[in-house]
Amino acid sequence: ARTLRIGLIPGDGIGKEVIPAGRRILEALPASLKLKFEFVDLQAGFQTFEETGVALPDKTVEILKKECDGALFGAVSSPSKAVKGYSSPIVALRKKLDLYANVRPVKSVMTAANPIDMVIVRENTEDLYVKEERTYDAADGSGKVAEAIKRISERASSRIATMAGEIALRRQKIRDSGAASIHSSPLVTITHKSNVLSQTDGLFRTTAREALAAARFSSVGVEEQIVDSMVYKLFRQPETYDVIVAPNLYGDILSDGAAALVGSLGLVPSANVGEGFAIGEPCHGSAPDIMGKDIANPIATLRSVAVMLEFLNEELAAAKIYAAVDANLEEGRLLSPDLGGTAKTSEIVEDILRRL
Ligand code: NAD
Ligand code: MN
């Protein structure tokens, strides 16, 4: 049996309602998988900041680094006005643990009229998000000018494209084992704007192309899309996409756009992935408008548990969770209010656990 130690960081708002559901599904996995879990409760978020003066305590980072195999992160609230000393703990965590990829599977219910089944793989460490900005007065006295560095490196582009290739192969392996899918062969779409940004996006494009030309990806189809036409195609023909790889900013925008296609933020999971470590994280925020009512959709979190498990090499366990969630959605009897139903969070969790 393998024992995995998982850090639990509920954060704020509905994070405190959905992360316990994530823990429960890990505990409910069938014994035949020979997987055991230990849990460590960890603090981060706005409430933590108000109580202790720091949003991400050193202790949380240290325990994650030294003791944990993976983690689940709920959501954190950010105050609408900037608060001195406060910055997002998840952004800091990605940096401190070098979680270089943000992986977001976006999948509709298989019976949907417009089936969607894609994974967006977003580079998580560079591009415009290096936050090197400056503001100065225009030389001609016409006012201020602000500018930002867009940094693209071969190393980061190569490893993110390689991860996209690995994900495409893994998805094909699952299809080969008989899982129903709208795709028949693996495809990676490289997204960029190299027609305008020939150096930065040009480097991303050529490096990703090279990485995906490796022999082990010989069965993976590779195509390119300029990001603006990508948005058009994403909305018109989302079913054509299998795995999408993008630099940080385009990936951020595409992944929120893709989430809109499947009907609710409450369905869409993600994982922040580095070498040998993964943090599962639902894409939604702390949803203060629905907190404390037992109506938050737990599915984004349950699927995030599965994505985390995939990156901890527990693909069988992940598949069980995906299948149980899909079965709940296909039946459509117990749905949360964001999907037009009346079921409580707790009822949905029970239903999905029963299907494991
Ligand atoms: P949000 O995702 O919290 O909510 C947007 C809308 O979607 C709300 O109407 C909410 O009720 C609904 N929703 C979200 N998750 C749901 C779920 N699981 N089930 C059912 N309905 C759900 O985004 P927001 O309202 O823009 O932000 C609220 C707070 O969350 C802010 O403080 C924001 O800074 C923070 N936030 C955090 C993260 C994060 O931690 N990664 C991401 C986005 C927003
Ligand atoms: Mn975003």
Automatic annotation (TrEMBL):
Catalytic activity reported: (2R,3S)-homoisocitrate + NAD(+) = 2-oxoadipate + CO2 + NADH
Enzyme Commission code: 1.1.1.87
PROSITE patterns: IDH_IMDH (PS00470)
GO cellular component, one term: mitochondrion
Sorted UniProt keywords: Amino-acid biosynthesis, Lysine biosynthesis, Magnesium, Metal-binding, NAD, Oxidoreductase, Phosphoprotein
GO molecular function: homoisocitrate dehydrogenase activity; isocitrate dehydrogenase (NAD+) activity; magnesium ion binding; NAD binding
Cofactor: Mg(2+)
Pathway(s): Amino-acid biosynthesis; L-lysine biosynthesis via AAA pathway; L-alpha-aminoadipate from 2-oxoglutarate: step 4/5
GO annotation terms (biological process): isocitrate metabolic process; lysine biosynthetic process; tricarboxylic acid cycle
Domain Isopropylmalate dehydrogenase-like: 5-352
One Pfam family here: Iso_dh
UniProt family annotation: Belongs to the isocitrate and isopropylmalate dehydrogenases family.
Protein name, UniProt field: homoisocitrate dehydrogenase
Organism field: Coleophoma crateriformis
